Amino acid sequence: MTSLKPSPVITDATGPSVSALAATGLTVRLGGRTVLDDVSITVGSGRVTGLLGPNGSGKSTLLQVLGGLRRPEVGVVLLDGDDVARLGTRRRARRIALVEQEAQAAAELTARQVVGLGRLPHRRGGWGTARDPQGGAVVATAMAQVRITHLADRLWSTLSGGERQRCHLARAIAQEPRVLLLDEPTNHLDLGQQLRFLTLVRQLPLTCVVALHDLELATAFCDDVVVLDAGRVMRAGPVRHALTPDLLADVYRVRAEVSAHPRLPRDHLAWDDFLETP
Ligand SMILES: Nc1ncnc2c1ncn2[C@@H]1O[C@H](COP(=O)(O)OP(=O)(O)OP(=O)(O)O)[C@@H](O)[C@H]1O
User: Fold this and answer.
1) ipTM over 0.85
2) What is the pLDDT of residues 166-175, one digit of tens each?
3) Interval 74-88: pLDDT, tens
4) What is the number of other CB atoms lying within 10 angstroms of the CB of residue 269?
5) Residue ranges with strand state E in the chain
C-alpha cells in the first residue's frame, strides 16, 4: 500500500496540450479484483507519454482499454472526441495501433507478411479482391525505418525476440495510425536497439503511449508520464514534475531522483538504493 494519495494532473509552463486520447473514470475488474480504479488520463496530441508503475499496477490493462480491445465496466475513452468502444474494429485500427507485450504471430509467416498485417484495416474490397495499392510501399518503408529490411523473407519462427519486437513496431507503423500504444517494447532489445527504437518512436508523427519499466529511458524519451499503482493514477504530467523523489519512494520503494544530466541537454534519473517495504 502507498501512503501517497492519487494526485491531479500536473501541467508544465506551456499549459496542457490538445489531448488526442482522453480516458475518464475507467474501472476494470478481473477475477474479482479491481485492476483499474477510476482512472482518468489525458494524452497530449503528438506527445510521447510513458505509462509507468510497478508490476501488476494495471499498465497493460489500461493500454488494452485505451486501444479499445477491452471494455471497462465504467468509464469512457475518447479518441479525438470519438468513443473508442463504439468505433468499428476497422475504423479503430486505422486510428490506433497497439503492440502488446510478447505479441506473437503465426510461425509460418515471413517478417514481411507480419508487417503486412498492419495493412489489413486499409484494404478495400471483398475477400480475394481486396486492394491496397500503397500497401507494398508502406510496408517496405516501415521495415526500412525499423531497420529490418534484411529480415523480410525470414520466417517468424526463426526470428529472435528483439527482431520480432522490431517487426511488431514496423507492423504498427505500417498500420498508419494516429495513436501508437506500446506495451514494454524494449523488453527484448539490447541497449543500442532500445535507444534506436525509442529515438524512432519519438520521430514518428504520432501520439504515443508507451509502458516502460526502465525509468531512465522514460526520463530520457518521454514528454509526460502517468504513474499507476494498484490500478490508480498516482501522478501524471511532464517527467521532471511527476517523477519526484517522494513519488519514486512511495510507488517504487526506491531512493531516486530526476535531475539535469551532467553532460547532455536532458534530464536523467539516478537511483541510490531500494527502501525496505514498510
Ligand atoms: N484475466 C485476469 N484475471 C485476473 N486478474 C488479472 C487478469 N489479467 C490481469 N490481472 C491482474 O490485473 C493486475 C494488473 O495487470 P496488468 O497486466 O495490467 O499489470 P501491469 O502493470 O501491466 O504488470 P507488469 O508490469 O507486471 O506487466 C495484476 O494484478 C494482474 O494479476
Assistant:
1) yes
2) 999 999 999 9
3) 999 999 889 999 999
4) 20
5) 19-30, 33-44, 48-52, 74-79, 82-83, 96-99, 179-183, 207-211, 224-229, 232-238, 254-260, 267-274
Q: Are 110 and 153 in contact (CB under 8 A)?
A: yes
Grid coordinates representing 88? 468499428
pLDDT 10s digits, 19-38: 689 999 999 999 999 999 99
Mutation choice for ligand 1 from 37, 51, 60, 251, CB with most ligand atoms inside 8 A: 60
Bridging pattern class, strands 48-52 and 207-211: parallel
Q: Tell me the pTM.
A: 0.91
Q: pLDDT tens, 123-173?
A: 876 556 668 888 899 999 999 999 999 999 999 999 998 899 999 999 999
Query: 176 C-alpha to center of ligand 1: Å?
Result: 29
Q: Which of 79, 99, 89 is nearest to 121 (CA)?
A: 89
Tell the residue nearest (CA) to atom 1 of ligand 1.
30
Nearest CA to ligand 1 atom 12: 35
Please tell me the residue having the least CA distance from ligand 1 atom 16: 58
User: What is the b/e burial string over 128-147, where b = at least 16 CB atoms within 10 angstroms of the residue's CB?
Assistant: eeeebeebeebbbebbebbe
pLDDT in the model for residue 128: 60
CATH numbers and ranges of domains, the chain: 1-80+178-278 (3.40.50.300), 106-175 (no CATH)
How high is the mean pLDDT of the chain? 90
Cell of 25: 473514470
Q: Which residues line ligand 1 (CB under 6 A)?
A: 30-31, 33, 35, 53, 55-61
